[in-house]
# Entry
Amino acid sequence: MMTTHELTLRLAIVVACATLLTSCAATTVDSAATPRADNPLDAVVACLDEAGFPGFTVENGGVRAPNNIGEEQFDPMRAAVYECQQQAGFYTEGIPDSELPRLYALELIELECLEDLGYTAPEPPSEQTYVDEYGTSASWEAFNDVFDSLPPKEQTQELFLELQAKCPPPAFTFVQQ
# Structure
């Protein structure tokens, strides 16, 4: 049985693979030609397509790279992913402390979404505790709190993906304002 953290890591790897596959060489992307979509992940995919890297898709809260990426495309694609993430407003160098209260508020909205689906979780930490513990092994995420509270037999990959589709973790699409 996979833990929430293992499943989150697998999804993060999908995004990281796409990121790693695209951020070394100097591929330029015209930011004026890439309108920002409602979902910033869609904006990343559209930007990559315009940069000459078609086939990326938004799946399960992340961007998935196509399977046909050749080794010679690795560095140019990595550069394009990084640039497209920046254009879409993602924090490519980490979320600044000043933005953590906004992320916390979005986590509470996600928790409400999960509760609306009938799931329960322990009481969330205070905003100050969330900010203080963010990025540590004690950091709190609504999705993980709910999923980890389920009986192990219910913690399936199918349910994990279904819940993330219905109530996406805010960090997946958290962009600069």
About this structure: Strands lie at 57-59, 62-64. The chain has two domains: 4-88, 97-172.
